[in-house]
Amino acid sequence: MQEQGGGRVTRELREKAVEYYSQHDATGALEKLLNKMYIDSPEDMYGYMSEYFHTLSNDPTVSSIEAIELLDSNGDPSLSLTLHCIVNGVSKAVGTYAHDLNWPKNDGELKWSGSKSKPPSGTNPKDTKETKDKSKESKEAKALPVKEEEAVVEEAKKEEVEEKTKEASTPPYLETVNRLNVILSELDLKSQIELNAVINQDHGITLHPSSKAAVSRVAALSLAFLSNQPLFLSLNQSFNKSTTSSKTFSLPLPLFNVVAGGLGKLRIRGVYLLPSPSSSLMTGFKNIMNVYKEMGHTLSTKGPAPVSKSGAYYFSCDKPEMLMDLIKEASASAGVTLKDEVLAYLDVGGESMYDEDKRKYELSTGQWKTGDELVNVCISLTSAYPWIGGFIDPLHPNDIASWQSLKEQLNEQCLLMAENALLGLASATIVIQKDTKGEEEEGETESIDSLSIINSGFISSSHTKTLSECFDEADDLKGRVSHISLSSLQPSSSFTSDSLSFDVDLAVALGCKLIKVGAPTGVTAAMSISRLIQVQGQLESLKLLGPSSLLMIPVES
């Protein structure tokens, strides 16, 4: 030991040092290291020592979260987060994530959600002065000259304006990160469930949901990096309660949005194309891309083909058959065989076209259909176009009788799928009363769990959901539907590859069979396919790749 204060170390100091090193078994750890290093004979001795002790060091803890407000390619605000952790006793930047700020459009101000103490009687709640010893201050104020009293009032107003300006200068999503900096400080990063639980707690103030979701994701990315694991595996181990060492994963199949609703008389939300599960990811992507390009060529004969924000084509028509004919013609021109190589999914959006007063669906402007008539439309489409693989939200979530009728009439290889609208009734049991003619009347009842009707339930990777909320929603659905799928909402205007491909890893960890990736030409689609190919290779090397996802899941009768 070194000498202390110019003299020799004291016996007391030696005893404290021995006690300290014995407490941490430093000598034992050093002996093991030296023996192991001598046998391994590494070229980089100090790098070897660093890696060895890294396994013995404390778990990384949150140090701080750095937030920067940026603009995406559409000029909308986005939030870029960098997570700093204490790793091996040193604060390091371990993960960066860019998150879309999509909630709400008018953020307003952060406000206390807890109870507020009432101001003393006779005082103005807007006063920025402390109310302590108010009566004393009031007496002193009366004795002041008029000009001096006015100066005091003006100063108070000035302080109030400055305080409001200061609050307004910090957007709510940045203020949320500032508050989470304090709340999450020194929290163990490996405890992802605990970290998300802390984020979701009621802290007495309104926290911006998008910021909470962004912090949840940057923490997950950082943990995957520090544990040297693929993100999907780290997520699964952190959140999936049913995880076992023998668990395998399957790759979700990508759904590409090629037609968006919004133009013309037809009111359906859009059309998705799915490559065949038997094709490789790259081949399937190329097939979808070729069909998409031929659709653009056909539409451009009548002028420039308008596209949505995601890159899907707007197609003005008044019948769903016109959409199907467009895809059929484009596939033939591209040399792609429908059903064998590509399947189509109609995102009907029954809830948005349903009129509560008329109890009918406006499939096309001025064209009203009852639930039974809309079911017949869907059935006739599957007969005319056998390469339709399924329907997404074809009916209103409360029209359970029509959902049940459609399920019974669909062929076994056509999926009935639902987004969050129907899933809102997941815990409800619907009672249908029918007589022998099928007309509603009082009498015998039949209880139907709404989830038993559908094959696939979509969950969304919403910008306002933390990861624990995504996994809780998935756990609620598993066992009640044939499979779950992910509706990816990450925009193509994000900044980092980790941000763009995050939902792919999330879908794999959740056990999703399908994932929406936007239009074929979008950045999100390209990054998603690239990440799926990477994940496939990682699963194969880890021997965790399960059987191929079966697209054709029979509908139980």
From TrEMBL:
<protein>
    <recommendedName>
        <fullName>Enolase 4</fullName>
        <ecNumber>4.2.1.11</ecNumber>
    </recommendedName>
</protein>
<keyword id="KW-0324">Glycolysis</keyword>
<dbReference type="Pfam" id="PF00113">
    <property type="entry name" value="Enolase_C"/>
</dbReference>
<dbReference type="InterPro" id="IPR047500">
    <property type="entry name" value="DD_ENO4"/>
</dbReference>
<feature type="compositionally biased region" description="Basic and acidic residues">
    <location>
        <begin position="126"/>
        <end position="167"/>
    </location>
</feature>
<dbReference type="GO" id="GO:0000287">
    <property type="term" value="F:magnesium ion binding"/>
</dbReference>
<dbReference type="InterPro" id="IPR036849">
    <property type="entry name" value="Enolase-like_C_sf"/>
</dbReference>
<dbReference type="GO" id="GO:0000015">
    <property type="term" value="C:phosphopyruvate hydratase complex"/>
</dbReference>
<dbReference type="GO" id="GO:0006096">
    <property type="term" value="P:glycolytic process"/>
</dbReference>
<keyword id="KW-0456">Lyase</keyword>
<dbReference type="GO" id="GO:0004634">
    <property type="term" value="F:phosphopyruvate hydratase activity"/>
</dbReference>
<dbReference type="InterPro" id="IPR020810">
    <property type="entry name" value="Enolase_C"/>
</dbReference>
<feature type="domain" description="Enolase C-terminal TIM barrel">
    <location>
        <begin position="248"/>
        <end position="532"/>
    </location>
</feature>
<feature type="region of interest" description="Disordered">
    <location>
        <begin position="108"/>
        <end position="170"/>
    </location>
</feature>
<dbReference type="InterPro" id="IPR000941">
    <property type="entry name" value="Enolase"/>
</dbReference>
<comment type="pathway">
    <text>Carbohydrate degradation; glycolysis; pyruvate from D-glyceraldehyde 3-phosphate: step 4/5.</text>
</comment>
<comment type="similarity">
    <text>Belongs to the enolase family.</text>
</comment>
